[in-house]
Amino acid sequence: LLPNAYINEYLTDEHETFAGRVVAIMDQQIKVLDLGFERMMHRHAWGIHPKNIYQAMALNALLDPDMDLVILTGPAGCGKTLLALAAALELVIERGMYEKVIVTRNTPEIAESIGFLPGTEEEKMAPWLAAITDSLEVLHKTDEHPHASVNYIMDKANIQFKSVNFMRGRSIQNAIVILDECQNLSAAQLKTIITRCGEGTKLICSGNLSQIDSNYLTAVTSGLTYIVERFKNFEGSTTINLNGVVRSRLASFAEANL
């Protein structure tokens, strides 16, 4: 019935009344765990509720401590970054399961060095991580945490902005690592980051293959494509494509027509 099914693949029916996850693959059959459609749609993290079943599946994986690697793909505006951050805050601040959040992304113009101009690594990375700070602005205004300022959230969750170049040689323990815009990373760069993740670390990779900025990468050669393929049979990871733009009708039209 599903000849190309892979472990931890999330499933839904065409009417979007069923939600399940592949938990075992045998020679002639697969085992699917019924996650409960309504139960999935009512889960939340840091006041954020899923707007569709694909976001609900992503949230399920993001909050699952047994998922060491969660790969989120989809068009701009589908909620990848917001969901990743909301889950990270929930797991670090509310549940105390991790000690910190490390956020990083590729920076094409400073690929070899973040420069010698004054400022800390985090200050230099700030312009490249505007999407993260925008999402934090949204999260600090949720009904469940109306008085939590962005600075409070960053301090409480120990959020650190890091350059991809500084990941080599490190061993990251007990942390959530959010790798944003990873369609712009090569397979070698992604391998460097993934192999830095030590015990108790969860890696969240997000990207959109239709928005590759690098002149040296295509949708076929992107590191995002590489890890989706290489980790599809790894029992500690899952890939979820967040179909549908939920940012706005303007963003939805642009994604479909430009």
What do these coordinates show?
The protein is of the alpha/beta class and 258 residues long. It is 30% helix and 19% strand. It contains 9 helices and 9 strands. The protein has helices at 37-41, 53-62, 80-94, 121-125, 130-139, 150-156, 187-194, 223-230, 249-257; strands at 10-12, 19-25, 30-34, 69-73, 100-105, 159-163, 175-180, 202-207, 237-241. A 6-stranded parallel beta sheet has the order 6-5-7-8-4-9. A hairpin with a 6-residue loop joins β1 and β2 (19-25). The radius of gyration is 18 Å and the shape is globular.
List the helices and strands and how they pair.
Elements: E1 10-12, E2 19-25, E3 30-34, H1 37-41, H2 53-62, E4 69-73, H3 80-94, E5 100-105, H4 121-125, H5 130-139, H6 150-156, E6 159-163, E7 175-180, H7 187-194, E8 202-207, H8 223-230, E9 237-241, H9 249-257
Parallel strand pairs: 4-8, 4-9, 5-6, 5-7, 7-8
Antiparallel strand pairs: 1-2, 2-3
Helix pairs in contact: 2-3, 3-5, 7-8
How much helix is in the residues?
25-40%
- Global mean pLDDT: 84
Q: Given the C-alpha coordinates, what overall shape results?
A: globular
Strand content: 15-25%
- Counted by DSSP, the helix tally is 9
Spatially, the strands of the biggest sheet line up as 6-5-7-8-4-9
Radius of gyration: 18 Å
Largest sheet: 6 strands, parallel
Q: What structural category do the secondary elements indicate?
A: alpha/beta
